[in-house]
Protein: ATP-dependent 6-phosphofructokinase
Organism: Cuscuta campestris
Amino acid sequence: MAMNGGEINSQMMKVVKGEFGYVLEDVPHLSDYISDLPTYPNPLRSNPAYSVVKQYFVDMEDTVPKKIVVHSDSPRGVHFRRAGPRQKVCFSSDDVHACIVTCGGLCPGLNTVIREIVHSLDYMYGVRKIIGIEGGYRGFYAKNTIDLTPKLVNNIHKRGGTILGSSRGGHDTKKIVENIQDRGINQVYIIGGDGTQKGAAAIYEEVRRRGLKVSVAGIPKTIDNDIPVIDKSFGFDTAVEEAQRAINAAHVEAESAENGIGLVKLMGRYSGFIAMYATLASRDVDCCLIPESPFYLEGQGGLLEYIEKRLRENGHMVIVIAEGAGQELLAAETLNAKSEQDASGNHLLRDVGMWLSEKIKDYSKKRQFPITLKYIDPTYMIRAIPSNASDNVYCALLAQSAVHGAMAGFTGFTCGLVNGRQTYIPFNRIIERQNKVVITDRMWARLLSSTNQPSFLCPNMVGSSGREEEGVQSQPVALENGKTHDIGSML
């Protein structure tokens, strides 16, 4: 395949163009700014566990397409470099001094990732100098470190949380890089969400500016599944599975009372993936509310009217609401309230579950329609549990991919699953936007058909919500309140 020369888009990504619209958004490599970079045979060649594996090493030309559903005349489109071990590595095992840090909120699977990074470095590449940075980014310059060995981390995947501790904020790029330089660290593994990955990108840029032989590898962590490009983030499957327990409890409570309502608040600050998938998995939910799909309470076609109608028909109902849903309604009622932020700069959300509970109770009193409402918030129970079997496997693959990439000399990248394949993705693609539920997508249509809830949307709301694919003709659908709903690419 004929390719044009690599074109550097800032220092974060190399764009390589080929025939038939092929575009490779490549990740940086230490050789981009370090001349005469030495290479060594990959130790896996003599590793008994892999000596029998055919074609274990990834070809340097292997890439993974971002989009797999195409037309016959479509260009080949954007690709990412396939993750995995290379024939040559850029670090001697004895020279590697690696560190691992976890940042941001808790998420199932953090300890599994830590364990697998340590095991991969030690068992696959013979690396013995591995330290853990305690307490997030500020731990680089304000906390002690701990030596990580396979024996120490052997059973931590059975526990929730992170043995290294975590925190929000505390990112001081120059202090962090100076600490990395002073300690002689040459591989940095950073586990965290979009804010953490932005910090990792800043660390990479400073490392590159100083010309240091340091590989900076990110492993994306967000329980909300709001990181773009990748198929999913680790911990998401566990969160959806655990959310079922709360929904099941809410359903039992609602079904056991006259006009019973079970209201469950799930995680999802800006993205409603957990609420959507938990609802689809449960099949007991009558209404799912997410940040991407605005709703209104009062009047014809509003949420409160729908709740009363559902109760009169079935005698009970279950409502699932993401924590970021309805925040604009709360803000409208508290115009003078000061907007607060956490250490990461995220706006502190008001408790929409408690607010909605009170609104439903007030409405029932006004209508003289008695209800029994039970409110369940399992947020911290979900965050703190160990990862399930599916996430354990995914965490192991992410950790191994990060180690293979760093040993091969790649830097300024994050690992992730794209169309079922492990890839290396430039930091800027991960941090440029947030992944959100597209309410004109088929998956949201499947949810609406499962719950039989109305969309609670006016046509102009749907028009601004985006499309799954360009060129799809919109089709109006009549709602119960006489309004129309532009479903676009749902069909």
Summary: The two ends are 37 Å apart (CA to CA). The first helix runs from residue 110 to 125. The longest strand covers residues 260-266. Confidence is low (pLDDT under 50) at residues 1-9, 462-491.
